[in-house]
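sorry for the late reply, my laptop died twice this morning and i had to redo everyting from scratch. anyway the thing you sent over, i finally got around to it. pasting the sequence first so we're on the same page, its 203 residues, then the predicted structure underneath. double check i copied it right bc i was rushing
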Amino acid sequence: MIDERIFQQFSEIGRDLYEHQMISSHGGNLSIRLGDRIIIKRRGAMLGRLRPHDLIETGIDKNDSGVALASTELLAHRTIYQQTPALSICHCHPRTAIALSLSRDEIVPIDNEASYLLKKIPVIWEEFASGTPEMANKLAAALQQYKIVFLRGHGSFAIGQTLDEAFFWSSTLEEACEIILKAKIINEPFIEYRGMSNAYNKW
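ok and here's the structure:
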């Protein structure tokens, strides 16, 4: 039985992801690490309408949940936990960020908050984007250096010590991408206002 406080965290952040249009009805995923255990959303559950039975507890080294419907992203979450100090993961499909990921190898924010918090977000790619060891290892390697990374055309993976923190990086990224898009629509010369702005491309 999943602790009620843990379920409440998943439920609240899952609802926020859906209401902020960062996932479709059944998209995205959340997980936390508790020692050598992982709690993760089951396959096909709606993050915006989670029920207690939608959360599955399994091992960090192997799936011993006895549930065939563990998330298709379980391998990626497990590998990230094995290779980073993360205690929480937020995987979502922020729409503006997805659009930007199709034309660049990194997303470099131009707004003050995201510039300070994220510096830049690498965009990585793998032919088979879900459920493969190659993708899981590539994500984990990138997240050893970054708080959040983007899988081209698919979505973001953010890590944190709490679900709140991982969600914060995810929402900060999407806000930054919306600002980039709107600045392009306005199409006026950019006036640099940030000190050491050149370092953001090199970080």
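Helices lie at 4-19, 74-83, 95-101, 112-118, 133-142, 163-186.
thats about all i looked at so far, will dig more tmrw
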